[in-house]
Structures are given as structure tokens and as C-alpha cells.
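REQUEST FORM: STRUCTURE PREDICTION
Request ID: SP-0412
Submitted by: Lab K.M.
Chain count: 1
Length (residues): 352
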Amino acid sequence: MSPVFSVRLHEVQAALGGELVATDLAEPPGDRLIHRIGPLDSADATTVSFLSNPRYRSQLQDTAAGCVIVAPAVQDGVRDGCVALVTPDPYLYFARLTQWWAARTRLAAPVGVHPSAVVAPDTVLGEGVSIGPLAVVESGARIGRHVVIGAHAFVGAGVEIGEATRLAPRVTLMSGTRLGARCLLHSGVVIGADGFGFAPTAGRWEKIEQLGGVVVGDDVEIGANTCIDRGALDDTVIGQGVKLDNLIQIGHNVQIGDHSAMAGCVGVAGSARIGRGCTVGGGAIVLGHLALADGVHISAASVVMRSIAKPGQYSGVFPLDDNAAWEKNAATLRQLHTLRDRLRALEKKMTP
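STATUS: Completed
RESULT:
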């Protein structure tokens, strides 16, 4: 099968920078033709790959890649006949190369409203909007320039979507949702569903209507089947540049600071406050009404049961137990370090 996209290395260099270095080549390194981006171990002579971790430098001699993106410190390890594309941060260069490549290889969404879509007559549509088959856009929605709304997506009444934001097929935006510019929402995302709010009464549960909305900043990416609940009274707020993986649950009135990131299956309970630049590993839980300072990093599968006021890395998993016993054991566990120091001091006093 012939490649769908080909590019010479000088075109990549002109777009993204870097230095092309090679030995034992018959032609200038910039003339090398590349058909794909791929990993070192499955690359061929038409592949551009990258090495970001110097520990794997030995792979540079084994790979068949035609070009490898490397840092200056390891460029001498690139085998003869392979072009080194030298840049201070190979992983960042690789990320930008994938964006450049995707912009040239992916089919652009057709501009206009598909005949099967249902769009309320008072919807405000910006220039270059694409609305796919069987999508629904309700009354009063405001859709910015170059927004893409995928097939079967639902945009509720009064929803606002910033320019160049993309909704994959089957995304649901309930009324009261405001999305910033250049966001990407993957299939199955639901924003603005009711939070888990019920008042117990006489052995049953009385629903508390959720009257707030959801505000999402610019440059946010939200993974498949992630849910962000609307606020109970005030809004749930997702800051600028936040990245959320698949299957994440964000409860009502949560606030997530700019450029924080969460891996798959994280759960954040209602009214939690997550600071700027935080990360939460896969499967971790943040309990409700807690606050995490800027720069807090939670390890995978941890359970955050108290607010964290200082930046740093935090981990913790504790076995399930009867609640009263668990609380006593947890209190004791938190004192183990102090008890150890006290025991050592006593041992020194008792040593003759």
C-alpha cells in the first residue's frame, strides 16, 4: 500500500526547527523522505522516531529508523546512515510533530450543517462551523468560529462553545455549559448532568435540583466517557489547559485549577478544590470538600482523605476495615514516624 503522506526532513525542520545531522549519507539529510512517525523498535528507513530517555541510548544502534529526534547529549549515538534531528527537548518536539502531521493527514470536517442535524433557528453559528449527522443543537446555543460538532452530539439550550473547539460523536452538553476555545471532547463525554444531590427523609431520598452550570476554560481536553456534573448552586469550574483522561468523574461544584491533569478512572467528589498544576494518578479518589494546593501530585490508586496545603508527591492506600477500627488504625499509622523516633531515643538512653 502506498503511503498517504510523504514529507522530506527539510520541510519538518522548516516548520518545527531543530538541526539535521548525519554521517555516511549520499544526499543532504534534509532530502530524506519520511512516510510515518513510529517507535524505534518497529521503524524502517521511511520512519521518523524519537529518543527522549538517555537510558535507552543503545536502541539508537539497533533501530532501522531513517531519522531519530534526539537531544544534543546523545546525537553521537545515532548510527551511520540515520539522520539525527537534534533538539533540546525531543519529547516536546515529538508532540509538536504529531500535531503538525495530524493537521496534514486527517480529513477536515465538512463546513456546514448536515441535513439530518436538528439546529434551533435562534442558534448563533460562527464562521466555518461543522455540525454532523443527527446532531441536536437546542435554542439559544452560541457556537464559535470553526467549531466541529460530531455526529449524534447534543448541545443543550443556551450552551456556549468557544472557537475551534471540537466535539467528537456522541458528546452531550447539557444546558448551563460554557466551553472555552480550542477544547477537545472525546466520544461519550457528558457535561452538565445533575450531581449526586439528595436529602434523606423518612428512609428515602429527596432530590435536590442542581441549579448551577459548568464552566470549562480554553485548551481543555476531556477523555472518552468522562462526566462533569453541573453545580448545585454555583458552577463547577474546569480551568485553562486542564487535561482529563477517560472515565473520570468530576462531582458538582468541583474546581480544578489551570493546567492540572488527571489519569483514567479518577473520581473527584463534590466541592473539592484542586489547585493549579496538579496531577492525579489513575484510579485515585479525592473526597469531597477537600482542598489541594497548587503543585500537588497524587499517586495512582491513592485515596485523598484530608486537604493538602503543601506542594509535593503524595501516596496512600489503606485496607478496608470496620470504620471505627479503621479510624483508630489510620490515626496510629500517621504517628508511626514519631513513634519510631521516640523508640530510638529510648533505646539510646537504655544502652549502657
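NOTES: The longest strand covers residues 47-50.
Reviewed by: T.R.
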